[in-house]
Amino acid sequence: MTAPNDLAKRLIDASTFAIVSTVNPDGGPQSSVVWVKRDGDDVLFSTIRGRRKTRNMERDPRVSIALYDPADPYHYVEVRGPVSLTEDGGPELIEELSQKYDGAPFREGNPANVRVVVRVTPAKVISR
């Protein structure tokens, strides 16, 4: 396991949008913009059960998360590692992330959505 460096911590702790990439069944990439937070050295984000990225991570837990510094886009971080998924704490995480990024309560578009907490354990952190 590799711990996030200072730039990674700063970007993750701020309201910097992140791009998570997963692996589709055909081996091609799938990328989505997500809200993130840190829990110790792990990176957490929320998704919904049944979405393409969720199905990809259930099949292949390898992901890459990229963030760039909005003040200087030439500075960026990539966090690679395996994920674990749980429904425990799903509604609480999306609410916390909504407050962090939007400063407002989260409004779920579909009440039937099942929220999933994705925990990325960094195996490699690259920054520039």
Task: Give a written overview of the molecule.
Strands 1, 2, 3, 4, 5, 6, 7 and 8 form an eight-stranded antiparallel sheet that branches. Helices cover 23% and strands 43% of the residues. The longest helix is centred in the C-terminal third of the chain and has 13 residues, at 90-102. It has 128 residues and is an alpha+beta fold. Strand 5 (62-69) and strand 6 form a beta hairpin.
The geometry reads as globular
Number-wise, the strands total 8
Rg value: 14 Å
Largest sheet, in brief, is: 8 strands, antiparallel
- Helix count? 3
Summing up helix and strand content along with how strands pair, one would put the structural category as alpha+beta
Order of helices and strands: HEEEEHEEHEE
Helix content: 10-25%
Which strand-content bin applies to the residues?
35-45%
Low-confidence region ranges: none
- Mean pLDDT over the full residue set: 96
Feature tags:
43% strand, 8-stranded antiparallel β-sheet, alpha+beta, 128 residues, globular, 3 helices
In short:
The chain is 23% helix and 43% strand. With 128 residues, it is α+β, with helices and mostly antiparallel strands.
Helix-strand layout with pairing:
Elements (H helix, E strand, L loop, with lengths): L5 H8 L4 E6 L5 E6 L2 E3 L2 E7 L3 H8 L2 E8 L2 E15 L3 H13 L12 E6 L3 E4 L1
Antiparallel strand pairs: 1-2, 1-5, 3-4, 4-7, 5-6, 6-7, 6-8
